[in-house]
Design brief:
By secondary structure, the chain is mostly helical. 65% of the residues lie in helices and 4% in strands.
């Protein structure tokens, strides 16, 4: 059913967010406040991604899916405001 969070659907979104994590590069200049913010955004995304893995292992697909969306939201926001270089990838990010 389209409205269910299945293991297959969850795996699809883990793959997408994993690709996004692998692709991005922090471009905010080092030793600046923006670089600190970029690192914080990336840290938050990684923490939510790990939370999603935890909830998936427990069989709580709804909470895992929610955590993945938060993770990707942090990445997307960072890309959108120029903290991350995402190589103009509009498949994984809302850029360009």
């Amino acid at each position: 059913m389209e409205n269910e969070i299945t293991a297959k659907k969850l795996d699809k979104y883990f793959k997408i967010t994993g690709e996004a994590l692998d692709l991005l590069k922090i471009v905010a200049p080092s030793k600046t406040h923006l670089n600190t913010i970029a690192k914080d955004y990336l840290d938050m995304a990684k923490r939510y991604y790990k939370d999603a893995e935890h909830f998936k292992k427990k069989g709580d697909f709804v909470t895992a899916f929610a955590a993945l969306n938060y993770a990707h939201g942090w990445l997307d926001a960072g890309a959108r405001i120029g903290l991350f270089d995402v190589n103009h990838d509009s498949r994984l990010f809302t850029v360009d």
